[in-house]
Amino acid sequence: YLSYRFLIIDPYYENFLNAFYKKHPQVLAYDYDNALKALMAECFGTADFYSSNLISLGHEAVDVIANDRVLQQKWAKQNRVKVSNPSFISRFIQRIPYIRRFSRPAAWILAILESQVKTIKPDILYFHNISLCEPDFVEKVKKHVKLVVGQIACPLPAERCLHSCDLILTSFPHYVERFRKMGIASEYFRLAFEASLIRRLQNLPQKYETVFIGGISKAHGEGTRTLEYLAAKVKVDFWGYGVEALPPNSYIRRNFHGEAWGLDMYNILHNSKIVVNRHIDVAENYANNMRLYEATGAGAFLITDYRDNLNELFEIGKEVEVYRSAEELVEKVKYYLAHDDERKKIAEAGQARTLRDHTWEKRMAELVEIIERYI
């Protein structure tokens, strides 16, 4: 049995990072390790779910949030890495520089990442966002790693970044053959739920009937139209980003509560009767997204848009419910709000399935099996 060293690189949404440091200004005074620990405790995205489960399996794993200016400059300072044109970390929270979305990573991001790779010397360099796999950067660090792995479940980045990966993992089944036809090794790798979160869920005084949490953007075009139709017929509480793109008379805007990240999001799911899910357009007809596992794992009743492979993940009608049209979604939401026992039975079965088959602990064991075939 071989033990591997993973360096897991992830960029976080800028809105979450800025909200985190505004909410927790004391983190600015922490050293790198404690600041990273505080950030991971928020449970944003996949947080430390990869690394903690890999470590429990006997491997080494280190997390890096590549576009977090505060964290990365702390690491650079502690490791005496000089970065050209560094931005000043102010003790005044309102002056924290915004962490911008990028099509090409900023020079400081790649400069610090390069030093981190050379210092850590991982066997597996694992990117949650393939846009970071710029060919020049990968070429510089390749001699320090054994395998460069990218993970994707979104619209494709620049092709140059795809070809910088030795292996691409994706929860989109249709992407696997697409990458292989491009000459890139690829494997199907599903998303999951972190079972340890169960202990951190709270029963909030505020309970919700029907909720939606997620992005509302052009990439979610058809899904957003469905949500508008639902919100016109049934009260739905919304959290997410992209609402500013909606017209002023949008039904979604009527009960929109802003953004909900990490533990806040999980607690909303846990305290909701029905969670509505829809997939991004590029998912085509495949079920894959995080909300499938987050909602069921948190114990909510999930109704999601029908996808051809959904029954491979959950038993439809027994563990989750589906809709094939906006009209059917409205009909089923009304039905399950009026039939508590049926709804609770499906929610309990969905949670049991997720905790049995769809945990990050199981996925990391699957990841190691995949890695062993390629490394």
Structure summarized in a few sentences:
By secondary structure, the protein is an alpha/beta fold.
Fold topology:
Layout lengths: L4 E6 L3 H10 L8 H9 L8 H8 L3 E6 L3 H10 L28 H14 L3 E4 L7 H7 L5 E6 L6 H4 L4 E4 L2 H9 L4 E3 L19 E8 L5 H13 L3 E5 L9 H4 L7 H9 L1 E6 L12 H8 L3 E5 L4 H4 L7 E3 L2 H13 L1 H18 L2 H15 L1
Parallel strand pairs: 1-2, 1-3, 3-4, 4-5, 5-6, 7-8, 7-9, 9-10, 10-11
Helix pairs in contact: 3-16, 9-14, 12-15
Query: Hey, roughly how much beta strand do the residues contain?
Result: 5-15%
Order of helices and strands: EHHHEHHEHEHEHEEHEHHEHEHEHHH
Major beta sheet, strand line-up: 2-1-3-4-5-6
The helix content, as a percent range, equals 40-55%
The average pLDDT is 93
Work out the helix count.
16
> How many strands, what sense, and barrel or not for the largest sheet?
6 strands, parallel
Low-confidence segments: 86-102
Q: Measured on Cα atoms, how large is the radius of gyration?
A: 21 Å
Oligomeric composition of the shown chains? single chain
- Overall number of strands: 11
Separation of termini?
A: 14 Å
**Helix/strand-derived class?**
alpha/beta
Q: What coarse outline follows from CA principal-axis ratios?
A: globular
Account of the protein in words:
With 375 residues, this protein is α/β, with parallel strands linked by helices. 41% of the residues lie in helices and 15% in strands. The strands form two sheets. A six-stranded parallel β-sheet has the order 2-1-3-4-5-6, with helices on both faces. The chain has a five-stranded parallel β-sheet with strand order 8-7-9-10-11, with helices on both faces. Helix 8 (173-181) links the parallel strand 5 (167-170) and strand 6. Helix 9 (221-233) packs across helix 14. The longest helix is centred in the last third of the chain and has 18 residues, at 340-357. The radius of gyration is 21 Å and the shape is globular.
